[in-house]
Design goal:
The structure is a homodimer. Chain A is α/β, with parallel strands linked by helices. Helix content of chain A is 45%, strand content 17%. In chain A, strand 6 (180-185), helix 9 (191-205) and strand 7 form a beta-alpha-beta unit. The structure holds a DNA duplex.
DNA sequence: GCGATTTCTTGAAACGATTCAGAATCGAGT
DNA sequence: ACTCGATTCTGAATCGTTTCAAGAAATCGC
């Protein structure tokens, strides 16, 4: 059985294809009894719109693309969720891609989106994709940066003040009496990371006698954090930091695990620990984790809002929305 | 600037539209020098295929739909990741939807997919969607159930032996000397839940003197688990279970948090705890969590494989792949 | 009763890529 | 010289929807 088309419905209901289309899209323009008759035919024939044809005619899809850096980081699923809920209100779907921190996968998704003449793109970029986004914009596809502010302000963005976040984290460690602080991170080419680092440095700079050490980890994952933690434990006692600021909660949880596993290091006794993002699991960690909260769902939702406005009016000036992070104190620094 | 079409490319390169299309899809049928010339024009004009037009002609999209029950449960992001990686190999994208355990949202996604004439559907169903999937099948859209076996075997599925998992979990609690076991769950209309419960009952049945209590929680989330845990703590000591089997790790982590928060209950001393799924965070919990591991990524990957085979040959008999779960023992039951 | 409106409906013309039967060209074989 | 086959290219037809100018019918005012 071939799927029924508007033509079949029109024939069955004894009207023209134009009328069927109007029933579907502008029912107020059609005589009520015609509407019911056509709707009846639609039901009996099991007609379902062919979205490809509709898009072809419309020139634009009803889908928003979202490319995140790491789908396994709950912070990004929070963003996705926020975006999805807001998009659903506007009868748009979200096409979610995980770039897995690879520029090439990121590019592949953007290519795909371009072929789809997607409604708009949300992206938490890995590399510098401004030129790529310019190309999309030329095609009439708006883009909003998520979790990163636009370097030159040519694109709208929704982000968090990571400098403030980093500063907040380290100030908190210092106010808890910590002097030898370590910053655990990787991907120092990522703005998010450098901003947090800059914030951390600023905090240290205003407190003489406090030092900041940088420890590079493999990746932004629990496993990588665990490895870093093991290396810390292997250091001679006097050589260990007494406060750690991890660039995200995944790493923080990994470190925490490694520290606590061998009983010789106490958290927060010997080492206090601050994470970043305040993912749901942070409060359920071995030692409940102090963290810098970022409003993931709100970010996703806001990004979709901006995207929709820009899609409606491409001449709109780019906007930079910056949310303030919030310190959530738990046992890991008490 | 309007986007260039095949027609523009054809004019620029001095060939017909058919040739341009052949360069795109069957370059071996075109003279090499023509190919380079056309490719040159494609580049200079910045031509990008219009996927909607292509799909309209092809009658089918290059996208696979995936509907999960809860995107914030890492188990499902693992599935998504496995599926995505496998799909990328086949040059297909994944359209990810979160039904949020709502049948209506689930249905909305399936409707969307049907309009898109999607290549195939993977779904971890909330309600009974067999009739809905039959409809899709009639339209030539194959579906594979994920994390649930097909009730009547009319659809392929990739799942885990949840009876065995439940049994394993409770046997383990019993062998750790626990006598008063509680099963924490909700959504008893879900097959996954009832199977685990049945497994738990079977384990209890074969050990006289061991009791099984069912405690219903609000939802399958950390928060719901925390609430249940608080209620447990408020019980008089003798009335508390000494072993808990939580239907998933999110709930287990919530319970764990609540139990450990007030220092009166020790885990595993007073209450041993087993979760389900073995999400990444389970090992990083307050007390590292014993759990029943399910191979999420593998499930996603396998589901895509089956889907692709069925898409290629719709006459293929449905297949039920069942993976065996695995007990991962950690401190919460030691 | 008649033109002017308003209300519904019609059907052909897009949208842009793919396909496929047939045209054009060239060599080889007889 | 002519046929046959292979290779390459052509361009009209097609997919299914939406749009829109124009037609038909009903309603209104006077």
């Amino acid at each position: 059985m071939v799927a029924a088309s508007v033509r079949d419905v029109a024939a069955h209901a004894g009207v023209s294809v134009g009328t069927v289309s109007n029933v579907l899209n502008h029912p107020e323009k059609v005589l009520p009894e015609t509407v019911t008759r056509v709707r009846g035919s639609i039901r009996t024939l099991g007609f379902i719109r062919n979205d490809a044809a509709r898009q072809l005619r419309a020139g634009r899809s009803k889908t928003i693309g979202l490319v995140v850096m790491d789908i396994r980081n709950p912070f990004f699923t929070d963003i996705a969720r926020g975006a999805e809920n807001r998009a659903a209100d506007a009868a748009l779907a979200i096409l979610l891609g995980d770039s897995d921190q690879s520029s090439s996968r990121e590019g592949a998704y953007l290519d795909l989106f371009e072929e789809q003449r997607i409604h708009g793109v949300l992206v938490s970029p890995v590399g510098d994709i401004t030129p790529r986004l310019e190309k999309l914009r030329e095609r009439g596809i708006p883009a909003v940066l998520v979790d990163r502010s636009s370097a030159d302000g040519t694109f709208s963005s929704v982000s968090v003040d990571d400098f403030a976040g980093g500063q907040m984290a380290v100030e908190h460690l210092i106010s808890a009496g910590r002097k030898r602080i370590a910053f655990l991170a990787c991907s120092f080419d990522m703005r998010q990371v450098t901003d947090r680092f800059a914030g951390a440095r600023a905090a240290v700079a205003s407190h003489p006698g406090v030092t900041l050490e940088v420890i590079e980890v493999e990746s932004l994952t629990v496993i990588a954090g665990r490895i870093a933690g093991q290396q810390l434990v292997e250091r001679p006692v006097g050589d260990r930091p007494d406060g750690i600021f991890a660039v995200n909660d995944l790493i923080a949880m990994g470190v925490l695990q490694a520290l606590v596993m061998r009983r010789e290091v106490r958290v927060p006794g010997d080492i206090a620990l601050v994470g970043y993002d305040d993912i749901d699991f942070a409060s359920a960690a071995v030692v409940p984790l102090t963290s810098i909260r970022r409003p993931g769902a709100l970010i996703g939702q806001t990004a979709v809002n901006i995207l929709l406005e820009e899609a409606a009016d491409p001449a709109l000036a780019p906007r930079q929305v910056v949310f303030q992070p919030e310190l959530v104190v738990r046992e890991s620094t008490l």
